[in-house]
Amino acid sequence: MPNQDGLKWFLEEVWEPLLAPNFPEMTFHIAGRTAPAWLRNLQKERVVFHGEVDSAADFLNRHAIMVVPLLSGGGMRAKILEGMAVGKVVLSTRIGMEGIAAQNRRECLLADSPEDFLSAVRWCVERGPEIVDIGRRAQVFCSENFDNVQVAKRLLDTYRNLVNERPVLMDAKW
Asked: What is the span of the domain harbouring residue 119?
């Protein structure tokens, strides 16, 4: 439900009144496996619903920005991390980025209001190819903070430090 609510809000409050009129060359693409009927039957100009895609990475790489307009919900945002891992520029709300300590305009783009989304998209359009650097930094950030091997190494280092700092008790009687 949080994904659907955020998408409805984005389409009604951001896309139609702000982005579509200000960027007539822009198209909004949506992918998803278990989409509700309202989304499968969506009839909005320059909004394309693809349904389930063969490869999320290929789909993401065909488009300039990944938009994740979450307004509620909890837990880790796997799709955001998936986008960051392939070097995609992710534009999300602060709620969408909860648990991911990426910095605005460094490894991601943050927007919480319709005007914030308009400003962020305008910023991207004005900078053109420069925004690729955000995607590259996102990829590095994701690798350093969420790669299983890196996380496991840090966990092992923590355990080693705990074992090395733990006092040994020798007066136990059996």
From this structure: 2-165
What are the tokens at 88?
Answer: 């995609």
Amino acid found at 172: A
Residue with tokens 């300590």: 101
pTM over 0.90: no
Residue 172 within a domain: no
Any alpha helices (H) in the chain, and if so which ranges? Answer: 2-9, 20-22, 37-40, 56-61, 78-85, 114-127, 132-146, 148-165
Residue 150 token pair: 């890196």
Q: What is the pLDDT of residues 50-86, one digit of tens each?
A: 999 999 889 998 998 999 998 887 655 788 999 999 9
Question: What's the structural domain count of the chain?
Answer: 1
Candidates 8, 164, 154, 26; CA nearest to 72 is 8
CATH code for the domain of 51? 3.40.50.2000
Distance (Å) of CA 56 to CA 13, 38, 50, 81, 89: 26, 22, 11, 12, 14
Q: Quick one: DSSP state of residue 49?
A: E
Nearest to 69 by CA among 114, 133, 39: 114
What DSSP string runs through 96-121?
TTTT--PPBTTTBEE--SHHHHHHHH
